[in-house]
Automatic annotation (TrEMBL):
Keyword Transmembrane annotated: yes
Top-rank taxon: Bacteria
Entry's transmembrane regions: 37-61, 73-93, 105-125
Keywords per UniProt: Membrane, Transmembrane, Transmembrane helix
Protein name in the entry: Transmembrane protein
Length: 126
């Protein structure tokens, strides 16, 4: 059974873990100024937090009823399609002189489109 309160607590915890790992890894990198494998390990350390966030989101989706899942499916479909179109178009724009799009900027676009998709789907199914 899906509980928005429980999901919020779990997601907040996962996001807090991500933030702690990110801040800790950045502080350690500044302090230690590592090279090679240690530098890469510190750079990738926050990924453990993102895995926790992804796991929490997937658990939340599995707990939803069919209607809530349908809303999320519609939102994720919009997010996937919109992100694909935007990054594909940007790739062509780079050929015309636009600056390179770093992969780090793709996820925020996907997240914003997911939220927009949820809003549209909820409005649509009222």
């Amino acid at each position: 059974m899906f509980s928005i309160k429980r999901y919020g607590v779990e997601l907040s915890g996962a996001l807090a873990l991500y933030a702690a790992l990110l801040l800790g890894a950045n502080a350690a990198a500044r302090l230690l100024q590592p090279e090679g494998a240690m530098k890469m390990a510190l750079a990738l350390l926050p990924i453990l937090g993102t895995v926790a966030v992804a796991w929490t989101v997937l658990r939340g989706l599995r707990r939803m009823d069919e209607f809530q899942r349908r809303i999320q499916f519609d939102a994720i479909a919009l997010s996937f399609t919109g992100t694909a179109l935007a990054t594909f178009a940007w790739g062509f724009a780079e050929g015309a002189g636009a600056p390179e799009l770093r992969a780090f900027h793709v996820w925020p676009l996907m997240a914003v489109l997911w939220v927009v998709g949820v809003c549209i789907a909820q409005w649509r199914y009222r």
